[in-house]
Prior knowledge:
Layout: E1 12-16, H1 22-35, E2 40-43, E3 50-55, H2 61-67, E4 78-82, E5 86-87, H3 94-104, E6 110-114, H4 119-122, H5 125-141, E7 153-160, E8 163-169, H6 195-205, H7 211-214, E9 220-224, H8 230-237, E10 241-245, E11 260-263, E12 276-281, H9 287-299, E13 303-311, H10 317-334, E14 338-344, E15 352-360
Parallel strand pairs: 6-7, 9-10, 9-12, 10-11, 12-13
Antiparallel strand pairs: 1-3, 1-4, 2-3, 4-8, 5-8, 7-8, 13-15, 14-15
Helix pairs in contact: 6-8, 9-10
Pfam family, one: RlmM_FDX
GO molecular function: methyltransferase activity
EC number: 2.1.1.186
Amino acid sequence: MSSLAERMVPDQLLFYCRPGFEADVAAEVAANVERLGWQGRAEFIDQSGFVNLVVGDERPANELHRQLAFERLIFARQSLVALPSLQLKRDDRLSPILKQVMESGWSFDSIWHETPDTNEGKALAGLIKALTRPLESALRKRGALRRKAGGRRLHLFWMGGDLVQLGMSFPGNRSELPGGIRRLRFPAAAPSRSTLKLEEAWHEFIPREEWDVRLSEGMQAADLGAAPGGWTWQLVARGMHVYAIDNGPMKGDLMATGMVEHLREDGFVWEPPYRLDWLVCDIVDKPARVTAMVQRWLTRSWCREAVFNLKLPMRRRWEEVERCLAQLEDAVADAGVRATLRCRHLYHDREEVTVHVRLRD
Length: 361
């Protein structure tokens, strides 16, 4: 390994995202970096699927990475401490990678090869497969890849066949999914593909070991804007009784289950007859209007947990989300209601983000 004096100190953070949302990641990260008292410059190319933050002061990027909690970020799929990207020669791609790893002094117990979520990235699968074993062998011989290294993971982010960036991730402050993407199988019986949004939200916000308690049979739920029934299907599949609120028709065999009461009413004005376990909502409307509706539910404690989507404007999406979440948090606090709130741009989301709120008794 290189001596301490010779080591390359990382001065960047690397974030993955859905292509087209680079500016939103940059705006969100910049706001958080400023709040934490750091300086940095976000660099990105539209539709590339990633953003680099070059740290602007003399402190190591590792310290900023520890302060910038991944679970609080909305638009980033992954967060890494990163080194400068490497331009590779096609006749010897491994040597520059090995050299940079050794100069960094990094050690790790696993290696992930990843690409942007683009067609160009997917085309690199064959090259990555050919390089994986030789690289692992070489790093193992040099002592960088070892059996126990505190769960640290080396990420090779391939932006092209001759361009790669090395990053490091740490347990508890990263996504544990390759590329930060949770791929789910579409259930054939579900009425629409939107069903995957709610399923992914449960995976994201509720620990799997708590599903049998917090998503249990016999619970009562409301689905506002339910038609054609994609989210209602998920609730019924968990054994919940559902008020499906929508003027549109419900599809599939949901009504035959006896678990659904379909009310052709306006989800923005409907009120539950008693406190429910769950509120879910995927209404297509302005985010401020949906936020105001959910705010009414939460401040009056009409549900114990809620999952809802905010449809995003074409521009300044981060600013709109930040404004809606701040409004909701302030209203809940002013009402004396204790709650935890998280928000994430999920893989199965498109032009929306998913918010989860859990009220604390």
